[in-house]
Amino acid sequence: MKLDPDCIRDILLTVERHTTFDNDVEPKDFSTDGLVQKYGKQKLLYHIRQAGESGLLSRVKFYMAGFSIQDLTPAGHQFLADIRSDTNWNKTKKVAAKIGSTSLQTLISVASNVISDLIEKTMYPK
């Protein structure tokens, strides 16, 4: 299955929105946020697995009847912070498409560079 960067971002936003210290994220949370309807169950599960294996989600467990996600990892929080704004996310996707790679590692790197560029422009305006 082809990786859908928007699906990854939506997963991270949902996990952040629904996790607490005592509560893991479960399928109902993704239904509540409309992600099952938007992406379909198989695509959503695939992207949850990819985000977990890429170190963005902690303690992803799959069961016969569903799954649970404990939280975002520190790397997941960092990536989400970098792409939270639609402006930064769209710029990240545009740069990734221009260089021809939308792998998670490329997206993470590009997002970090987009933020670094914004910091530099803010601190040292021309």
Q: Explain this structure to me?
A:
With 126 residues, this protein is mainly alpha-helical. It folds into two domains: 5-72; 77-123, no CATH class. The chain has helices at residues 5-18, 27-32, 35-39, 41-53, 74-83, 86-99, 104-123; strands at 57-63, 66-72. The protein has a two-stranded antiparallel ribbon. Strand 1 (57-63) and strand 2 (66-72) form a beta hairpin. Helix 6 crosses helix 7 (104-123). The model has no long low-confidence stretch (mean pLDDT 95).
Summary of the model, kept short:
Helices cover 65% and strands 11% of the residues. It is mainly α.
Form type = globular
Span between N and C termini?
44 Å
Q: What fraction strand?
A: 5-15%
> How many separate helices?
7
Tell me how many strands there are.
Answer: 2
List unreliable stretches of 5+ residues. Answer: none
Radius of gyration: 15 Å
Helix content: 55-70%
**Elements, N to C (H/E):** HHHHEEHHH
Largest sheet, in brief, is: 2 strands, antiparallel
Mean pLDDT: 95
Largest sheet: spatial strand order: 1-2
In total, the number of domains comes to 2
Structural class: mainly alpha
Please supply descriptive tags for the structure shown above.
single chain; 126 residues; mainly alpha; 2 domains; two-stranded antiparallel ribbon; 7 helices; 2 strands; 11% strand; globular; DUF2513 domain-containing protein; DUF2513
